[in-house]
């Protein structure tokens, strides 16, 4: 049905999409996880309530999350150029993806940590646990199922957003879908890329949920 | 020796615009080896009070001394070290749900930097103490309430604490399980010499295991002392209410308040409750007395009972009845107003 050129293009698309998704998710978690922990710790009922810090982080998270990704992609072009040296290509797309995902992750982490039973945290305190102990040994461990479900949802979202990178020549399956399907009216290639995206999404979703389920000892 | 000394402790919470005084000028002394009950209705402030014993709640004013250390003067780090000596168990058990039983017990040991191998060894010993050796690999979700509380007790004992605080530890358990947990606590107190503080709203828990009791009402200690003394001669209305009402109102019915009727409270001690004193009295004086309330219960292994009688109007007869009852070794007390 397709010649080898198209197939190798699709394979390259898969590779680029996975590259963008995985690297963006990892980097976004490096920023978003501590940010989410800070939100929880400084919140009113947190381990170290701090109104000013919480209000600031809360504000940043809300501002960034309220900017549509497509606009963010364009707004961040100068910053992207500063960080990776150019404003197009898969690596360049990672920058806006991370900026977009990190505050989102912070919120997910905060809400996962909110699910941890305050009684368990109190018990840990009564045993002489420090705040660091409580975060690393109680909160993150008790909330792990919820955190992994959050990560699965986030990865799926980033996969979807990475498809928009086509607009800035970002590469990946979304780029192919836009170029061939939209600009050249080659519907068959567009459909194939969409199916590939759906399969990738399903794999991420199933693997993530499976891990989360296996790690959940509450039932 | 004094294990816990509480001096002039007060705690105020800011609730919106107004301040709520949760605890008012509390003074208590708990001696080494005591099983000290703190009893009160819900909202009386007993849970806040017990959290002041390990500074999970910092008192607004006053002092808490554990041994010779004033908790208020310790640094954050010293306080954490001290807390490893003051274990605590809870109504809702508060186990780590994502860790199995043995890892839950290892948790406080690992916090104190005990090596993994040593922690496991200690955890296994503790599982034997609480009788759950076969559940080492189970997760809390697979255990019953009583088993969870046993794991929590094992976890609390891990660091060889001097004091064990129990915050409504049996309130979520059925009567049989409650009895077995109380027995375990008594064993721990006897064998390991750990001082135990029992927070509860159940009189039966206090009468079952405590040697001393403090009754707390609206943030104040209204009465405290040896369980026997407080139970036999409750001075405060809160104490009377708790002792007479008993648990779940099983002590029996409403009390008719007969205005103007002279009422006396009789306390049965030692073996007197097995004598049909009241019946004999009625036969002797050929007059009816109004039994307003009667209750007997097991206090510290001795059968105790008490009764409130409404006396006939004749004052001479009243005096004769009182003398008669006193002669038979009963303790008599006038009751005024509502009982």
Describe the structure.
Chain A is mostly helical. Chain A has a single domain (4-215), classed as MetI-like (MetI-like fold, Orthogonal Bundle), CATH 1.10.3720.10. Chain A is built from ten helices and no strands. Chain A has helices at residues 4-42, 51-66, 69-75, 77-84, 90-114, 118-126, 131-142, 144-162, 173-183, 187-215. In chain A, helix 5 (90-114) packs antiparallel against helix 8 and helix 6 (118-126) packs antiparallel against helix 7 (131-142). The longest helix of chain A has 39 residues, at 4-42. The termini of chain A are far apart. The mean pLDDT of chain A is 92. In chain B, strand 1 and strand 2 (18-31) form a beta hairpin. The model of chain B is unreliable at 248-259 (pLDDT under 50). In chain B, 34% of the residues lie in helices and 29% in strands. Chain B is of the alpha/beta class. Chain B has helices at 46-52, 76-83, 101-111, 116-129, 145-157, 175-192, 203-209, 227-232, 237-245, 277-285, 315-327; strands at 2-15, 18-31, 35-39, 61-66, 69-70, 86-90, 163-167, 195-200, 212-217, 220-226, 263-268, 290-299, 302-310, 331-335. Chain B is elongated. Chain B is built from eleven helices and 14 strands. In chain B, the strands form three sheets. In chain B, strands 6-7-8-3-9-10 form a six-stranded mixed sheet, sandwiched between helices. Chain B has a four-stranded antiparallel sheet with strand order 2-1-4-5, with helices on one face. The interface between A and B is medium-sized, with 24 and 29 residues.
- Secondary-structure element series of chain B: EEEHEEHEHHHEHEHEEHHEHEEHE
**What is the straight-line distance between the termini of chain A?**
49 Å
Helix content of chain B: 25-40%
Query: Roughly how many Å apart are the termini of chain B?
Result: 38 Å
User: Which regions of chain A have little confidence, pLDDT < 50, spanning 5+ residues?
Assistant: none
Largest sheet properties of chain A: none
CATH architecture classification name of chain A? Orthogonal Bundle
Whole-number mean pLDDT of chain A: 92
Question: What is the CATH H-level superfamily of chain A?
Answer: MetI-like
Give the oligomeric state of the chains in this entry, treating copies of one chain as homo and distinct chains as hetero. Answer: heterodimer
Radius of gyration of chain A: 20 Å
Helix content of chain A: over 70%
Characterize the main sheet of chain B: 6 strands, mixed
**Total strand count of chain A, please?**
0
Shape field of chain B: elongated
Number of helices of chain A: 10
Q: The CATH topology of chain A, please?
A: MetI-like fold
């Amino acid at each position: 049905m397709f010649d080898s050129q198209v197939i190798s293009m699709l394979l390259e698309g898969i590779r680029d999409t996975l590259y963008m998704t995985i690297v963006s998710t990892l980097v976004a978690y490096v920023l978003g996880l501590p940010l989410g922990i800070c939100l929880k710790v400084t919140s009113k009922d947190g381990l170290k309530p701090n109104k000013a810090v919480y209000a600031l982080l809360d504000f940043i998270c809300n501002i960034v999350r309220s900017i549509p990704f497509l606009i963010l992609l364009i707004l961040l072009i100068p910053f992207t150029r500063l960080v990776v040296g150019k404003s197009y290509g898969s690596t360049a797309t990672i920058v806006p993806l991370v900026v977009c995902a990190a505050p989102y992750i912070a919120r997910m982490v905060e809400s996962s940590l909110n699910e941890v039973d305050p009684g368990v945290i109190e018990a840990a305190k009564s045993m002489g646990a420090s705040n660091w102990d409580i975060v690393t040994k109680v909160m993150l461990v008790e909330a792990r199922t919820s955190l992994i479900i959050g990560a699965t949802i986030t990865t799926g979202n980033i996969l979807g957003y990475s498809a928009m990178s086509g607009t800035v020549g970002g590469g990946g399956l979304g780029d192919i879908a836009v170029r061939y399907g939209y600009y050249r009216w080659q519907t068959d290639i567009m459909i194939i890329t969409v199916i590939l995206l759906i399969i990738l999404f399903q794999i991420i979703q199933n693997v993530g949920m499976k891990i989360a389920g296996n790690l959940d000892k509450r039932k | 020796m004094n294990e816990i000394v509480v001096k002039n402790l007060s705690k105020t919470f800011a609730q919106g615009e107004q301040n709520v005084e949760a605890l008012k000028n509390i003074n208590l002394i708990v001696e080494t080896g005591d099983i000290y009950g703190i009893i009160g209705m819900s909202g009386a402030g007993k849970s806040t009070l017990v959290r002041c014993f390990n500074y999970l709640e910092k008192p607004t004013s006053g002092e808490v001394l554990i041994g010779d250390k004033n908790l208020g003067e310790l640094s954050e780090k010293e306080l954490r070290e001290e807390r490893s000596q003051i274990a605590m168990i809870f109504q809702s058990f508060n186990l780590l749900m994502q860790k199995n039983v043995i890892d839950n017990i290892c948790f406080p040991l690992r916090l104190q930097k005990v090596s993994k191998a040593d922690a496991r060894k200690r955890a296994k010993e503790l599982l034997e103490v609480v009788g759950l050796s076969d559940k080492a690999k189970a997760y809390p979700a697979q255990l019953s309430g009583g088993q969870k509380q046993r794991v929590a007790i094992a976890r609390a004992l891990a660091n060889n604490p001097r004091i064990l605080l129990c915050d409504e530890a049996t309130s979520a358990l059925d009567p049989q399980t409650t009895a077995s947990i109380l027995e375990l606590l008594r064993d721990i107190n006897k064998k390991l010499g750990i001082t135990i503080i029992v927070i509860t709203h159940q009189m039966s828990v206090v009468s079952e295991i405590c040697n001393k009791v403090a009754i707390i009402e609206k943030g104040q200690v209204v009465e405290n002392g040896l369980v026997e003394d407080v139970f036999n001669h409750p001075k405060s209305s809160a104490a009377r209410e708790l002792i007479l009402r008993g648990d779940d109102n099983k002590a029996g019915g409403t009390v008719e308040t007969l205005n103007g009727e002279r009422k006396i409270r009789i306390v049965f001690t030692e073996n007197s409750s097995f004598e049909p004193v009241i019946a004999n009295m009625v036969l002797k004086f050929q007059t009816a007395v109004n039994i307003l309330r009667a209750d007997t219960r097991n206090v510290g292994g001795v059968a105790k009972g008490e009764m409130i009688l409404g006396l006939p109007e004749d004052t001479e007869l009243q005096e004769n009845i009182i003398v008669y009852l006193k002669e038979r070794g009963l303790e008599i007390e006038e009751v005024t107003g509502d009982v």
